[in-house]
UniProtKB/TrEMBL annotation:
Catalyses which reaction(s): 2 GTP = 3',3'-c-di-GMP + 2 diphosphate
Annotated transmembrane regions: 21-42, 48-67, 74-95, 123-143, 149-168
Domain called GGDEF: residue spans: 244-373
Pfam families given in the database record: GGDEF
Official protein name in the record: diguanylate cyclase
Gene3D superfamilies (UniProt xref): 3.30.70.270
InterPro entries for this protein: Diguanylate_Cyclase, GGDEF_dom, Nucleotide_cyclase, Rev_trsase/Diguanyl_cyclase
Coiled coil feature spans: 172-217
EC number of this enzyme: 2.7.7.65
Keywords carried by this UniProt record: Coiled coil, Membrane, Transmembrane, Transmembrane helix
Native source organism of the sequence: Methylophilus flavus
Record-linked PROSITE patterns: GGDEF (PS50887)
Length: 374
């Protein structure tokens, strides 16, 4: 693909491409028709200028055709059009004395340069035209009907146009910069508010999690509390219960009342927390450890057979027996194990586990007994 010679800096704002195409389409159509008409009018009086007008009419229509087929080449086409207009202006200005279209061409060139190629290109084109007009008047290279006052007036006019456009462009850039700054500030504010809202939401979620955890946790032992376990068990539908082999281990600390009476509730709480921590440590990730009430603790073991639950309870019993609390010689537990059966409620399951626990106690404590499968 051909690239334009950088005689003037090209604008890279793709948003303006569509408007440039529309502008050039109108300019080429108008300039082509006017040049064609002027070639007919001037052909007899000045054959050279008539041929020049015809040539530029053909160039305008060719550029119009290229523009319709290759919109992406708008920068190259704009550069070519500006230089053709510039050359046409020079020919008409210096060779067609007394022709009133010269000022119109001047305005067309400058307006096109400022719009299509930006302020810097427009200033450059304006300076070149002014220098050529004044230079020709002073040197007399081409005949000119302009007087010194006319040239001076033209110079002041073009300088005034320069300052008007400069002030307009400066004002537009200032407004654009201000709008960009406002937009940037707005985006920063929105981002800040979004981050603050996200932080608040995160804090609320954490607080919600903490409240949920506190409402479902026993504050002394850190195990699940009775209310939470009842809710979890209630999620099992009657149709589901008994289809999976879930086990429940009911644990009671031996002689706990005697420990409280002899050593006080502070040491009793210490024993309870130590036993709960040991049970939690040796339970599995899928197990639910619960403080049911007082010194009664529960381990609910999903997908666990009676034999497996018995082995788990025995492991916990042995580990608790190894606990070392200075004020007390030994700590022991008794446990009853039962498995969930079809149609069981929590009360049914607990009743069988409690019966097994009673047998363990009757057998001398520090024992694990299993409820018979019925």
């Amino acid at each position: 693909m051909l690239r334009p010679i950088q005689l003037f800096p090209a604008l890279t704002d793709t948003v303006n491409v569509r408007y440039k195409v529309i502008f050039l389409n109108n300019v080429f159509t108008f300039a082509g028709l006017v040049s064609l008409a002027m070639s007919v009018i001037r052909w007899n009086t000045n054959p050279f200028l008539g041929k020049v007008d015809l040539l530029f009419a053909c160039a305008a229509f060719i550029l119009l055709w290229i523009l319709h087929r290759h919109h992406k080449m708008v920068e190259l086409i704009a550069s070519i059009a500006l230089w053709l207009c510039f050359v046409q202006f020079l020919i008409v200005f210096f060779l067609a004395n007394g022709n009133p279209t010269r000022s119109g061409l001047l305005l067309l060139i400058l307006a096109s340069a400022f719009y299509l190629k930006g302020r810097q290109a427009g200033y450059s084109m304006l300076a070149i035209i002014l220098a050529l007009v004044v230079g020709n008047h002073l040197s007399g290279l081409f005949p000119s009907e302009f007087k010194n006052l006319d040239i001076l007036s033209l110079g002041f006019y073009m300088l005034a146009q320069f300052f008007i456009i400069h002030n307009y462009e400066s004002l537009r850039e200032t407004q654009t910069s201000h709008l960009k700054a406002l937009n940037a500030n707005l985006e920063a504010l929105v981002k800040q508010r979004t981050e603050q809202l996200a932080a608040v939401n995160s804090a609320l979620e954490k607080e919600k999690e903490n409240l949920t955890r506190l409402s479902s946790t026993d504050h002394l032992t850190g195990l699940s509390n009775r209310h939470h376990f009842e809710n979890v068990f209630a999620e099992y539908s009657p149709a589901t219960r008994g289809k999976t082999s879930d086990a429940l281990i009911l644990i009671d600390i031996d002689n706990f009342k005697k420990i409280n009476d002899t050593y006080g509730h502070v040491l009793g709480d210490k024993v309870l927390k130590s036993v709960a921590a040991c049970i939690k440590k040796h339970s599995r990730a899928s197990d639910i450890t619960v403080r049911w009430g007082g010194d009664e603790l529960i381990v609910y073991a999903p997908r666990t057979s009676l034999k497996q639950a018995y082995q788990l309870a025995e492991k916990m019993r042995k580990q608790i027996h190894l606990l070392d609390i200075t004020e007390i010689d030994t700590i022991t537990i008794s446990a009853g194990v039962a498995v969930l059966q079809a149609g069981d409620t929590l009360s049914h399951l607990l009743h069988r586990a409690d019966n097994a626990l009673y047998e363990a106690k009757q057998a001398g404590r520090n024992n694990v007994y299993s409820a018979a499968l019925g």
